[in-house]
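Design job #97: recover the sequence.
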């Protein structure tokens, strides 16, 4: 398992035990969550750090980095891997005793920022422009860069080398756009092979929306933009893949997610993030595959990004020390240490060259950071997005216009409210 957000994306499940719940879902937040700021404490601090760890490797790496910061700064930092980050954070905020620093999933960021629970410190970190613009945008609300991304992943096209060759395809046949994707998928299908295992939620199909120039909300998260010609084009294309047998949802292939179907050899291609590397190594070590940037759509290249930020509580009495801690965790060399320890991609552009050199198989993922699109940046959207996912799961038999009209109504109802 990789990061909390990676596992969530990979398994295409809704809010799980390691994700943060919204203000509308009993997380312990209310509209006054960030309005009473505690007096700041000077001198050495004892910071409480709560993380949604992907496993022992991440926990050990973060604890080691925290110990190094403590030794050099004269402060202390206690890192706690949450058993249930949702519950523990909710209880902490409800009890008016939140951790100083904690992981914030991008899909939950707006819920925290909208109620004042986060300290907007992003511009106080050295060289904030070094973080990829797409990731800065993800954690920006009302013009404030709240929290810096700790790492990220994007989606890429994963190709099974053996099945690709069996279909008579070579390296030059890797599709660069939708038209080529369709043509290649038809060749693969003609050989009796399922061409594409495609996740059945917005976390995968949303990439086609971005490639068509659409998205669910406006860039500022204030308006619903679901019922658009661009999104309609994207869903109609996706539907054509499904109806023509060029793509199958994982459940149609007796798999829990695209990576499982791909690893079992049930499809020649899938669309997943670089977390698939760990899953393939653990469960399907003999499968040879390559990763490639996603085919471009009518409006150019597009993919989705998945990321967490280092959130600092607005109620922390040690904000300066907390910022110093985050500064240390997000230096390029420390991000590279994390990459080596548990397989993440650095969020600083200055680490890209070194990362690409050490992890050449991940180059397609990191190269797409510049045009990646983050999740919906608006609060209280959980039920709306879950309903959209339910619609996408019926895409083969439901008119895309019907799905988008419903999404538009539901989203604007929340945003307008």
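Job complete. Output follows.
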């Amino acid at each position: 398992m990789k990061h909390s957000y990676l596992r969530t994306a990979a398994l295409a499940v809704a809010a799980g035990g390691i994700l943060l719940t919204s203000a509308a879902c009993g997380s312990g937040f209310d509209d006054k969550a960030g309005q009473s700021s505690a007096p700041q404490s000077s001198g050495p601090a004892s910071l409480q750090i709560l993380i949604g760890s992907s496993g022992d490797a991440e926990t050990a790496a973060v604890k080691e980095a925290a110990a190094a910061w403590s030794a050099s700064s004269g402060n202390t930092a206690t890192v706690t891997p949450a058993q249930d980050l949702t519950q523990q954070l909710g209880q902490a905020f409800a009890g008016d005793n939140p951790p100083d620093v904690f992981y914030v999933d991008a899909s939950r960021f707006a819920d925290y920022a909208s109620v004042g629970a986060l300290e907007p410190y992003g511009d106080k970190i050295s060289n904030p422009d070094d973080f990829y613009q797409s990731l800065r945008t993800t954690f920006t609300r009302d013009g404030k860069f709240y929290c810096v991304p700790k790492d990220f992943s994007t989606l890429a096209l994963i190709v099974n080398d053996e099945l690709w060759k069996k279909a008579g395809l070579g390296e030059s046949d890797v599709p660069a756009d939708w038209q080529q994707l369709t043509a290649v998928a038809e060749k693969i299908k003609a050989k009796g092979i399922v061409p594409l295992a495609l996740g059945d939620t917005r976390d995968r199909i949303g990439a086609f929306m971005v490639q068509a120039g659409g998205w669910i909300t406006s860039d500022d998260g204030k308006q619903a933009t679901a019922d658009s010609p661009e999104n309609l084009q994207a869903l109609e294309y996706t539907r054509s893949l499904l109806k023509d047998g060029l793509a199958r949802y994982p459940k149609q292939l007796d798999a829990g997610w695209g990576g499982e179907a791909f690893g079992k050899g049930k499809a020649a291609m899938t669309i997943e993030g670089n977390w698939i590397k760990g899953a393939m190594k653990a469960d399907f070590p003999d499968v040879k595959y390559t990763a490639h940037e996603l085919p471009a759509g009518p409006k150019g290249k597009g993919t989705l990004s998945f990321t967490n930020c280092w959130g600092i509580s607005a109620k922390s009495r040690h904000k300066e020390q907390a910022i110093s801690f985050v500064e240390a965790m997000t230096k390029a060399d420390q991000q590279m240490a994390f990459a080596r320890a548990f397989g993440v991609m650095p969020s600083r552009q200055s680490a890209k060259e070194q990362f690409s050199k050490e992890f050449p198989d991940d180059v397609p993922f990191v190269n797409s950071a510049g045009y990646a699109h983050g999740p919906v940046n608006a609060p209280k959207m959980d039920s709306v997005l879950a309903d959209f996912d339910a619609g996408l799961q019926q895409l083969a038999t439901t008119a895309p216009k019907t799905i988008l009209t419903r999404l538009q109504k539901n989203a604007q109802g929340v945003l307008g409210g």
